[in-house]
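Re: beginner question about structure tokens

> Can someone show what the tokenized structure looks like for a real chain? I only ever see the sequence side.

Sure, here's an example I had lying around. Input first:
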Amino acid sequence: MAALFYAALVPQFLGGGVDAPALGVVALAGTVAWFLLVANLVGLLHEVFAVPIVRRVVDGLAGVVIICFGVLLAFTRP
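And the corresponding structure tokens:
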């Protein structure tokens, strides 16, 4: 599916007469950029969530959301 996406969308931005190796380079560059972004965000969020107070707040909010979903489910008619 991803190959169809690149084959259909990417040539529009590269100009006419672009061959397959150029498409491969563009796909590789986009993939590397995406994984670098995700890795850096995960590293940053790991430092943020390592703080105990932040972890407690997030756990509390998650609990409230789950309880609210349960109450909503209990009072929703099928």
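Each token stands for a local structural state, so reading them left to right follows the chain. The two ends are 37 Å apart (CA to CA).
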